[in-house]
Amino acid sequence: MTTALSVREASKIFGGQVALDHVSIDVAPGEVRALVGQNGCGKSTLIKILAGFHQPEQGTEVTVGGEELQFSDPASSESIGLRFVHQDLGLVGNLDVVDNLAIGQGYLTGITKTIRWKQERIAAREALLALGYDIDVRRAVGGLAMSERTAVAIARAMSTRGTPAKMLILDEPTANLPGPEAERLYTLVRRVADSGVAVLFVSHHFDEVFEMADSVTVLRDGRHVITRPVEGLTEDELIEHVVGRKLDEYDKEGHSRQHGEVILELKDLSGAAVQGIDVTVHAGEVVGIAGITGSGREEVAALVFGGHGHGGEVVLDGEVLPVSRPDISIDRGMALVPAERHQNASLMSQSLRENITIVDPGRHMSMGILRHRSEKSDVTVWLERLDVRPAQSEFTMAQLSGGNQQKVIIARWLRQEPKVLVLDEPTQGVDVGAKADIHRMVDEAAAQGAGVLVLSTDHEELVRVCDRVIILRRGKAVDELSGPRLTNDSITAATIGRDSSEPAA
Amino acid sequence: MSEVQAAPRRRINLGFDRFSGLYVWAALIVLFALWIPDLFLQVSTLKQVLTFQAIATIVALGLIIPVAAGAFDLTIGGVVSVSVCFTAWALVNHHGVVVAVVGSILLGIAVGLLNSLVVVKFKVDSFIGTLGMSSILIAVAAMISSQSQIVLSTEGYAPFLDFARGEFLGLPYTVYYAAVIALFMWWILEYTPGGRYLYAVGGNPVAARLSGVRIGRVTMIAFVTSGAVAAFAGIALTATIGTATSIVGEGYLLPAFSAVFLGATQIRPGRVNVLGTLVAIFLLATGVSGLQLAGAPSYVTDLFNGLALIVAVSLAVRTASRRK
Hints:
The structure holds two protein chains of two kinds.
Chain A: E1 5-14, E2 17-27, E3 32-36, H1 43-50, E4 61-64, E5 67-68, H2 74-79, E6 82-85, H3 97-102, H4 117-130, H5 146-158, E7 167-171, H6 179-194, E8 198-202, H7 206-212, E9 215-220, E10 223-229, H8 235-243, E11 262-270, E12 275-282, E13 286-290, H9 297-304, E14 311-316, E15 319-320, H10 326-331, E16 334-337, H11 341-344, H12 352-357, E17 365-366, E18 369-370, H13 372-385, H14 402-414, E19 420-424, H15 432-447, E20 451-455, H16 459-465, E21 468-473, E22 476-482, H17 488-495
Parallel strand pairs in A: 3-8, 3-9, 6-7, 7-8, 13-20, 13-21, 16-19, 19-20
Antiparallel strand pairs in A: 1-2, 1-4, 4-5, 9-10, 11-12, 11-14, 14-15, 17-18, 21-22
Chain B: H1 3-6, H2 16-35, H3 37-40, H4 43-68, H5 76-92, H6 96-121, H7 126-144, E1 150-151, H8 158-165, E2 167-168, E3 171-172, H9 173-191, H10 193-203, H11 205-210, H12 215-241, E4 243-244, H13 253-263, H14 274-293, H15 300-323
Antiparallel strand pairs in B: 1-4, 2-3
Helix pairs in contact in B: 2-14, 4-9, 4-10, 4-12, 4-13, 4-14, 5-6, 5-7, 5-12, 6-7, 6-12, 8-12, 9-10, 10-12, 13-14, 13-15, 14-15
């Protein structure tokens, strides 16, 4: 059998830590393979070796269609037919589709080196049509739907102006896609595979593994666990392979916890999209807010935290919080784990210690000197409590995988023992194991008396952690679900506008 | 990850990534010691290097603070000039040493406040904002000095001149000023919450703000610090050379930036830091004075500084990307 991609004995060690341990995989032409595993399992290390970003250890061999990959050389991986689409897509939002396709591969030019725009446009259109997308190629990429942007990125990766693509590698292709758009992407990937190109995609979403992949490879702790066809595999089996143990059944008793006094009140809170919502959170209670993109959900965290100017009031423990003063909100006991941690939360080139203590760096000050040693042991306790891997306080944030970075950000705030904890998409791009850990931490924070507000597009997550969920539609709170009415399907139905049987709260 | 897997593979680490500057420095000293032993291996050479570099060191130390917070301060050269001209003008017009010194420092602080007004309130990019401000300062310095050289005679201004020229253990006071400021900056950056705030604002201002850091205030304090320190350097410079011209400070701008950025590749790679900056300054100074003693023409200073900066930073970028 011919193989499109053959990886032999791939290993990589970072400063004594084994990230990838003699991993071998083969992918056949036309096959769609999912690569799954927890954060830190070695998926991204493997992808980065293929992309020519990391130099693997001695003994590693990679061939694509029989040609050997020269390591640490992105040009080599391109020239033997490897193509990559990263999670952030790498598109330039204010340029149109034609320009975005031409970035990297160059423009078609005439003898005078003038760009032949007409041919460019036709070529761009055809490339997208071949993937099943009919898009006006003169539109700026920033204005396209997310799945259309993904299609542009894939079209660019597949372009054959250089050597033909043999292997398409996608990093979390549907991470940012709402349901129906994700489905379009499945069709797209299928088309790519049908043209004889092998596809390898990294994923945390098991639904896309089952929808899209022919076969799946699981990595755990840098090692190959299993490669098998998706057919006949159940979701529970897959989870077990990924985490190496059976996941605890969701513990529902947490939802009958005792609630205390009102700790957080949003009174007639308004912003650009949010139009006057009232929310009350009690101590020890977990309240969720759900809503589709554009419902105002994505704005709530910033309004609550005083990040933007707003109308209405945020009352924390009886006191009105000033607008646009995160520092005062924090002093009064509020904590925010924002969405998009790279932009909003991480200090990438700084140590985990500095990342965690940035909220109150003075805590370990004595006689005018910050005591690094006591800071370190304090931080290490938190890294271990959240099972951050590696639990090395002096590693920089950039050395960790996404899920572990998120745990560090959560540790930053739990360490403050906040009265109110606001979590915005707390498990975005995070693997199953880390997600379960984060959910457990939310339970614990609430058990210790914090009022928790969770904003999420992951409805299963809301069902898992929340006592009740408020539904936003067009900037208004239109419904509230709790008890037996709090299910994945009822949230989905309510967010897209099917009114529930009971009148809105 | 299990214990077995995590067993570290020990490699002998000579710290070439963090301490390459120290190795190069040692190599330079050995090189010149072998090449021109009679000229180079003198106490006077050491003294000369320390004395010549003291003021440049002070300016660079001040600059570390805004750069740590992710802001360029291109006004430091201009502040040195204004401070030199104001000090000399106040002294020759008999306003007294106190007015000269306090006035200069206040001018430095005022420039820092103006910089932060432009950068924080008007949201002008710090590179552009301070570039404009530095041009204004050149004009101010020229106005103060009435576009001519002010000379402070050795006899008339002895007490003031001693402020810099006085010696302790064979070294002029300026060397000690630089040492004290270095110690202070090192403490601030490494051992106080203020240092954490500066690096956080420099690293990711959005994350810093959402973690409760008041980024506007931190930026303002950073600019005020570099302004005040540059003004102090100007006072010391006036006392050292005894003359004032409106362009004297410009020569301190590029060396300070070179030292800070070269220093960011040392000791704590990837971030500007005090020890790295000191290593950078003395590495460059040793190379330059060795070459000059060996008979190289004076333009070799700029040539050597420029090459060293580009080579060192390129190497640092390479090792950083390999480590990933």
